Amino acid sequence: GILGMTMVASAEPVTNIGIFTDGTPFTNGGFDGYGNAYSYQTLGFSQTLPWNGVTFDLGSPNQPNVLVAGGQTIPVPQGGFNVLNLAGAAVNGSQQNQQIRLNFSDGSSVVWTQSFSDWGGPQNYGHESIISTQSYCDTYSGSTQPFTNHIYGYSYTIPAGKTLASITLPTNQNVRFLDLQMSFSTPVNLSNSYTSWGIANGTKSVNKGEGFDSGGNYYYNGNLQS
Asked: Does residue 208 or residue 183 have the better pLDDT?
C-alpha cells in the first residue's frame, strides 16, 4: 500500500491500523479514530482492490495500513504515468474542498481541490467513485457492528507535458488514504465515428435537427466553455 513507499514528510506521518480481521480487539482507534475499522472479511479476505485500471494494495490486516493526512509530501512512482489514483475516505463527516498539491519535476505545482465523502455516507463528489461497499465494521472490542461503509476511489489527470514527482496531502486528519497508484491513459479520437450533432451555437442551424437527444435539442457551446 501507500505505506510501502518512501515518504518525504513535511509533517510527521501518522499511520493507523484501519483494517482488522473479525474478532481482533484493538486500541489504536481503528479507521475512524473512534474504535471502528474496516473488516478484512467483508473485503473478501483480499489485500487488493481493482479500480480504474489499477490495483490498489490495501496492506495486511492488523498492521499499519492507513495514512492519516497531515501535510505529508509523498514521492510517486515514475514511468510516464499521467493519472493519479487514490483510495481512501473521510471520517467524522464528509470533508469538503481539501487541497492536494501536485508537485511536478520542473519545480511547478498545481492544487487539486477535492471533497471526500465520509466512509459511511457517499456524497458522490466529483472525481469520486465508490469502489468497495461493506455491510458491517469491526469494533475495538473485537465484535462487529452493522454499518454500511465504503472505500472510495479518486482520480486526477496530470496536465499534458508535466511529470508528477510528488503530492502533498491536506493537513486534515479526517482525510485518510489506503493506497496511491499511478496509471497511464491514452485519449481515443472519435471524430471519425460520430453519428449525430449534439453541440451547437445558439444561433446556428444544425444539420437534420437531430440534436443530442434526437429530438432537436442540443448542448449549448457557450455553456460548455464557461
From this structure: 183
